[in-house]
Amino acid sequence: MNVEMSSVERRARVHAALGDPARLVIADALAIGDASPSEIADRLGMSSNLVAHHLGVLTDAGVITRSRSEHDRRRSYVRLRPDSLAAFGSPGFAVPRRVVFVCTRNSARSQLAAAVWRSRSAVPAASAGTEPAARVNPRAVRAARRHGLRLAAQRTASLDAVAADGDLLIAVCDHVHETLPAALTRLHWSVPDPVPVDTDVAFEAAFADISERIGRLVPAITVGGSRP
After folding, report:
1. In this predicted model, what pLDDT tens digit does every residue of 78-98 receive, in sequence order?
2. What is the pLDDT of residue 92?
3. Fewer CB within 10 Å, N or C, the chain?
4. By C-alpha distance, which of 186, 167, 152, 193 is closest to 70?
5. What is the rounded distance in angstroms from the CA atom of residue 30 to the CA atom of residue 140?
């Protein structure tokens, strides 16, 4: 059987990059959520210079990509490339009472994420916003419909009214992640906001990004075991 050398070489670079324990720890930390370099340093107790070195190696190997925050352009986020994920497993954790997806307006990304989650997991899901809009964005409603999902067009909610103990919060918005209190435990998915672009293509891109991430998180939660 013939195998393209470029594919083999790329896999070898990924495995070589992950052969360092520190870089494998960083990759594990990014398996189910994005983080800024400073957040990685804080979580893992590494110096910023060491984190920068390891992120450079992972970038060169094609394991991670970076994006600029939509809220604070001085800030960047690191995420794993989906095609590199087969090289390692996602960490499991305890099953939450509910998964709550949060964005600023609760009009698009968080609504789509909750709808996708409900179609794939028995763990309940909800969505909320820190500054909820009057209604769900019509393009989000149509994007959900194209994938066989339904959104209630008039139903948005405030995070203060929705969040409760035992919830797993997932910020699908840079603004939310950067403005919520640091003590509020959450995952962060740096999903570009499709609303300013206002095209079906942008909403489909957001849907695909969210769907891929949920595809990784659902089995990680299943593996995690019973609720605390």
Report:
1. 999 877 665 555 566 688 999
2. 62
3. N
4. 193
5. 27
Q: How far apart are CA 46 and CA 150, in angstroms?
A: 44
With beta carbons less than 8 A apart as the criterion, state whether 203 and 143 touch: yes
Q: How far is CA 133 from CA 137, 179, 181, in A?
A: 9, 18, 21
Question: Which residues are CB-contacts of 30 (< 8 A; sequence separation ≥ 6)?
Answer: 40, 64, 78, 79, 80
Lowest-confidence region among 44-48, 54-58, 92-96, 202-206? 92-96
| Residue from 89, 78, 88 nearest 54 by CA | 78
Q: Which helix (H) or strand (E) holds 165?
A: none
CA dist 19 and 172 (Å) reads: 30
CB 206 within 8 A of CB 137: no
